[in-house]
Amino acid sequence: MFKLRLVMLLFLAFNVAKIRNYPMENVGVNSLYPAPQIVPGRPLIVKNYPAVENYQSDLYEVYAEPYSYDVRPLTAIALVQSEGEGSISGEVFFLQRHPPAGPVYVRANITGLSEGRHGVHIHQAGDLREGCVKLGPHFNPFLLQHGGPSDHIRHVGDMGNIEADSDGKAEFNYVDPLMSLSGGPRGIVGRAVVVTENPDDLGRGGTANSLNTGDSGKPLACGIIAYVN
Ligand SMILES: [Zn+2]
Hints:
Layout: H1 2-15, E1 44-49, E2 59-64, E3 74-82, E4 89-96, E5 104-111, E6 116-123, E7 158-164, E8 170-176, E9 192-196, H2 210-213, E10 219-227
Antiparallel strand pairs: 1-2, 3-4, 3-10, 4-5, 5-8, 6-7, 6-9, 9-10
Bound molecules: zinc ion.
GO molecular function: copper ion binding; superoxide dismutase activity
Keywords: Antioxidant, Copper, Disulfide bond, Metal-binding, Oxidoreductase, Signal, Zinc
Family: Belongs to the Cu-Zn superoxide dismutase family.
């Protein structure tokens, strides 16, 4: 079903105006269509993305409810290690109780950091052959600007900041509404978590880099996100 959803997402991104009786101008923010019945009892849901008032987007998510695929919880982990000789290490744990669209619970424990805030991001690639530097940009399947984890307009990979204490330890807990562990356009498994030298300004720095990377400096440590079990 998720595959169907993905196909329909792509289809709708280019053909939304062709849906019979539902012209483009009727699509509002997070609109819920009365829906053509593809299968009796399974309404077709059409949502504008991102769901932000006064934001013009041509991207729509389309799916039929209820889901009929396996919705058992998924878990994944990234073992984060220093770039080069550094002493940073830790774990970033991900849990999605209701894949593919439910929120992802993120819990991180990292040690060996310099005191203060450091950016944390998921980058597009998980290829560590050249350490933490060739992992592509922040994971950004919807081609939006950089932001913070609670912003509507953000990269899916924008996890914000962790704050290390005077012993270099940082703990981090939050719930992310965008990323998914089940593959598809928001899937993060197989990509990399990167901890940066500087704090992430969450796109609010006013500099050229702020809306790309949060001006968070070079990577200090990274790890590939992989399934648990
Ligand atoms: Zn970003």
